[in-house]
Amino acid sequence: EHITVQELANRMAERAADIVKFLMQQGQMVRANDTLDADDAELIVEEFGHTVKRVSEADVETGFISSEDPEESKQPRAPVVAVMGHVDHGKTSLLDALRSTDVAAGEAGGITQHIGAYQVQLKSGDKITFLDTPGHAAFSAMRSRGAQATDIVILVVAADDGVMPQTIEAINHAKASGVPIIVAVNKVDKPDANPDKVLQQLLQYEIVVEQMGGEVQAIPVSALKKQGLEELAEAITLQSEILELKANPDRSAEGVVIESQVDKGRGPVATVLVKRGTLSRGQIVVAGSQWGKVRALVNERGQQMKDAGPSLPAEILGLDGAPEPGELFAVVESESRARELVDYRQRQRRDKSSGMSSGGASLEQMMAKLKDNEVQELALVVKADVQGSAEAISSSLEKLGNEEVRARVIHAAPGGVSESDVLLAKTSGSPIFAFNVRANKQARELAEAEGVEIRYYSVIYDVLDDVKNTMEGLLAPEK
Ligand code: GDP
């Protein structure tokens, strides 16, 4: 797959003419609209003193080559903050409380809708973007796709409960991704609160807070009583100054999908976070394997925006489907380019789930093949009513099994079962698990014709049980 000289130039913030000149010196005659293959592109990127960031193999091949922007093009941007911690320690309450620190709320109208992220402006004028999707699932989904959206993790630990299993999980996630932690010791208003004990406990996990002579900031807060919020915001600002967060706003936009859904009235809606560049209404965007022309950009106050720069979350309308959280998006120059990218990605997906292109696709057939040792992986397609349940089901399914057999979800998305799902399932020989959704008529007919099994569920445990039982049957010693 290819990238045009012009697009490569845009991505490097260089002039296309300079690339043409360079190639001419190499004995290659090209014009700005000509395409280059990935190897050539990479060579040029390096030759121009930029670094090639391999977002993923497919992205490189499709031209999603990210190069560093020149230092002088970058401007300070707001930090993107995720709140993590054990259940009931106050993540949601803290996110709600932090909204109230927004001084822009008065004039512009308060935050009216949940879009997966919001930005507040502090008294100092500094801005902070909070990812409003508590839980580690979204965070790890983004990480697993190589899209690091988070700059700082706020680790919420309840002062009356101390470090708990999900606290440790959160610490591990943050550490693995190299994101700095700020500890918010919450619920200090409670009579049985013991903040010092929390700080002491954290030592075991190599989190040495300032109060203990270390470098990690720890702020006592009460989300309920709205205490310590300014101090927490200051800590975030200080940390982001240390990180020197910057991005080039004057280039075509790139970023990451935070959340998505198919809205009855508005169609597919995705909340994206711009990482660099500026996204504008009317531009053509590819997000994962979906694409579309940005029909509207809406912020968390329900207001229409003309454009969105770095660290600014926005809902985009106009995509042809709901992309998965954690997938990258980028503006492309034309519809044909968008189609090319999306086709490529869909093909890749199918190829990846290869090896089983013949025969039908039911759970039984798949098991028979597994028994014959043809495949060790149980490929599955999951469709669900909302993104959250699609994700919950996939991650639970992927935890099943052992070294001999495991489930691999090749596609999980919100929305009813469509023909394209059936085709994907057919090529990968996998059944479709439909959770609280139905298949439309065309999809049902196609499934029947192709021998693809669609299994309907309304209880998550039933999905897991079915797969588990089948796997166990498979693993049981023969005769
Ligand atoms: P999450 O599961 O981490 O999102 O936790 P929630 O925000 O839902 O809070 C769990 C419970 O703790 C709720 O009943 C909150 O009202 C309560 N809570 C949260 N923050 C505080 C706090 O600062 N002080 C007290 N006393 N209760 C709190």
TrEMBL record:
The keyword GTP-binding applies. Its main location: cytoplasm. GO terms for molecular function: GTP binding; GTPase activity; translation initiation factor activity. GTP binds at residues 85-92, 132-136, 186-189. Residues 76-244 form the Tr-type G domain. Keywords: Cytoplasm, GTP-binding, Initiation factor, Nucleotide-binding, Protein biosynthesis. GO terms for cellular component: cytosol. It is found in: Cytoplasm. It comes from the Bacteria. The keyword Cell inner membrane does not apply. Belongs to the TRAFAC class translation factor GTPase superfamily. Classic translation factor GTPase family. IF-2 subfamily. One of the essential components for the initiation of protein synthesis. Protects formylmethionyl-tRNA from spontaneous hydrolysis and promotes its binding to the 30S ribosomal subunits. Also involved in the hydrolysis of GTP during the formation of the 70S ribosomal complex. This is Translation initiation factor IF-2.
